[in-house]
Amino acid sequence: MSSSAVEAEAPDLVCQLDNVQGMVDALSAVRWKRHQDAVIELSEHGIVLIVEDSNCLQAKVYLQRELFIQYEYKAQGRPKFGVSLGLFVDCLNTFSVPGHSGAIEIQYPGPDMQLLLKSIDSSDACIYAEIRTRIPETISWDYDFEPAGSTPLSFTCKSAALKEAIDDVEWPGSSIQITLQPSPPSVNFMGEGHGYLQIDFMYYVNTDLLTAFHCDRLVSHRYRYKFLRATTANLPSSVTKDNRGSKLTIGRGGMLKVQHLVSVARSTNTHPYINSAGYHQPSRIAYIEFFVKPEADNDDS
Amino acid sequence: MKFKAFLTDNGVSLLEKRFLPALDKLGKLCHLYLTRDHFFFLHNLLNGDGVQSIAQFRTPALFDDYRISSQNDDRIAFSVDVSLLLRAVRSSAAVRTDDGSAASSDQDHCLQIKLVKKLPANSTQPLPFLTFETKGHRSAVIQDVPISKPLSRALVLELQTALDAAQSLPMTLVQVPDMNQLQGFMDRMRHVGDSLNVSISKCGDLHLQISTTLITLGAEFQKLLVIGDRAEAPASDRNLSAQSWFERAITRGDAQSVQVSVKHFAKSLHCHLAKPDCAFYGIGEQGSCLTVIFQFFIPGSRQTDKSISFHCRLPVLDTGSN
Q1: RNA-binding among the record's keywords (chain A) (predicted)?
Q2: Which of A113, A167, B165, B186 has its CB surrounded by the most CB atoms within 10 Å?
C-alpha cells in the first residue's frame, strides 16, 4: 500500500476521552481572553495545545496519551494545526451535559482538514462537531526556557495561594516584581505604582504554603501584571479542591515558567472510595505551563 | 358580550404552575379566544412571524359554570399580557391557600373570572378588563387585568381561520426522548449560530445542526418513536454520517429538513414548563413549518388527556429540502 493511500484512509489521530469536562478545565486554564488562536500539535506522546500573547506570554497544555482511553496515532512527523481556542472550548462544553459521562472521540483530520468531535456514550443519541482548522503561522515563538545557572531557581507553592497572591497584588500597578532570596529563604511579590503592596512567602514560616524552595542567590525580575495574572486567572476549581501545587521557575534572562497540574479524571463524587484510589493517579493529570517574559527594562540583580 | 366562569382548583393549578409560565416565555402578549366549548391561548396567529403556539382547553378542564354569550356565535377574543394574567392567577391562588378556604365546601366557586368594562381613574372612557374575584374564608380580592378591546367580527374570523390552518398535522412525528437533555444541548449550542437545521426522518431520526463558517455542531437522535408515515432505513446506509444519511433519506423522500431560528427553537423548548408527558417534532407539509406537539396524559394513566392540547409552530427560515 502506498503512503498516499494510507494518508487518504487513516486519519492522523483518533482518540477517545471518557471525561470531556477534564479537558474543558485544562484548556480553560489557558484561556485569558475572548479571541485566542491556538496551535495544536499531535504526536505519539499526546496532544499539545499552545497559545501566545503579544510575544510576552506563552502557554502550553500537555494532554498525554495516557489521559485517553484510546489513542491511535498514525501520522508521520508531528501534524500541527491552528484553531480558535474559544470555539474549541465552547464546543467541547457542548459535550459536557450534566448527568452524562461526556465520553467523546476526537479525530484529525476530517475530509476537509477539520477537527472532528463526537460523543460516544450513547448509541441512539450522538452529538458531533466539526471545527475548521487553519494552517498555523510558521513564526517560531522564541520561548526557549533555559536554566539560569547550574542550580535551579524555583519554588513550589499551593496553587490556590499563588492565585490569591497574584490577585492581591493587582491594585498597586501594572508591573509586579518577583524576588527569590536564599536568606531568609523566601519569595516576594511586590507591586508598586498607585500604592505599594508586598506579599512574602517565607519558606520556614509556613511549609504548607511553600512546599519546595531552591535558590542560592538573590534574583529579582519584573513582569507585566496582566501576563502574570493570566497564569492563574482561569485555574479550574478542581485545582483548589484537589489542593494542588504550582511550580514557578526563573530561567535565563528572567523568563518565568509557571507549571500547574489539572485533574482530567472523571468526577467521582458519588463514589468516594474510587476517588481516594484515583486521587494520586498521575496519568490522569494534564500539565499546564506558562512562560512569561520579564519586562525589558529590568535589571538582573 | 358576556363571559363569566369559575376557575376550578385543577384549572388554577394547570394555569398557575404549568401553562402560564410556559406561555409567558413564548411571548408577552397572547390572544385569549373563548368559544362555547373551548378556551384558547394563542400566540402569533394573526401576525406572521414568531413562534405560533396554540394551547387549547375544553372548558371543563379549567372551569365550572362556564357562561359565554356574544353576537358573534358566542365567540370572544382579545389580547392580554400573559405575565399579568400569571400574576393575577398566582395571587388569587395564594389568597385562597392563605385563607385556608381550599378546604371549605364551596371551594369550586370561589375564583370567578369575568369580562367587565370599568372606568379607570383619570379616564373618561370605560376600558375592558378580565376580572378575578377571589373569595377567601375571611377576605375577598378583586383583580382587574387590563385586556385589549375585543376583536372585531372580521378579526375573530381571521383568528379562527388561522387556528384551523394551524391545526394541520405533519405526516410524520418523532417523539423526543428527553426534553431536558435537548434543552441542555440547545443552551450550549445557542451561542454558536443563529439558525438551526432540523431534519426528521420517517425512520425515527431527529437531526439538529448549527453551522457557521468556522464550526458545525450537531446532535443526532436515532430510533425514536414514529407516529404517522414511517419507513425502514436501508441497512446499507447505517454506516454513513448523519449528514450524508439524511441527504440520501431526503432524496428517497423518507426525510425532510428545514431551517429555523435558534431563538425560536429555544423558545419552543420552554414549553416544557407546561410539564407535558411527551413531545413530538414534525415538519409541516412541504416544509412549511416545524411543529412541536405536546401530549398530556390523564393523571395516573398513559391515556391522552383529550381535553388539553398544546402545540407550537416554528416559522421556517429557508426550506432546506429544496
Answers
A1: no
A2: B186
The per-residue pLDDT for B136 is: 77
CB distance from A107 to chain B under 8 Å? no
Q: Please indicate whether, in this complex, the C-beta atoms of A132 and B213 are within 8 angstroms of each other.
A: yes
Query: Could you give the angle at the alpha carbon of B186 between the alpha carbons of B183 and B188, nearest 5°?
Result: 115
pLDDT band per the 50, 70, 90 thresholds, residue A144: confident
Given CB atoms, is A282 within the 8 Å cutoff of chain B? no
Whether B143 and B196 map to the same domain: the answer is: no
Distance CA B274, CA B179 (A): 12
Q: Which residue of B has its CA nearest to A100?
A: B181
**A73-129 pLDDT per residue, tens:** 999 889 999 999 999 998 898 888 766 667 899 999 999 999 999 998 877 788 899
Q: What is the pLDDT of residue A8?
A: 56
Q: Do A128 and B223 touch (CB under 8 A)?
A: no
- Any B CB within 8 A of A131 CB: yes
Distance CA A179, CA A294 (A): 12
Task: Name the pLDDT band for A274 (thresholds 50, 70, 90).
Answer: very low
Q: Looking at the structure, do residues B64 and B29 belong to the same domain, yes or no? A: yes
Asked if B161 and B176 sit in the same domain, the reply is: no
Could you tell me if A275 lies within 8 Å of chain B, comparing CB atoms? no
In a shared domain, residues B18 and B114: yes
**Cα A99 from Cα A227, distance rounded (Å):** 36
User: How far apart (Å, rounded) are the C-alpha atoms in residues A153 and A160?
Assistant: 21
Nearest to B221 among A114, A124, A131 (CB): A124
Structural contact between residues A84 and A37, judged by C-beta atoms closer than 8 angstroms: yes
Which of B215, B219, B221 comes nearest A130 by C-beta?
A: B215
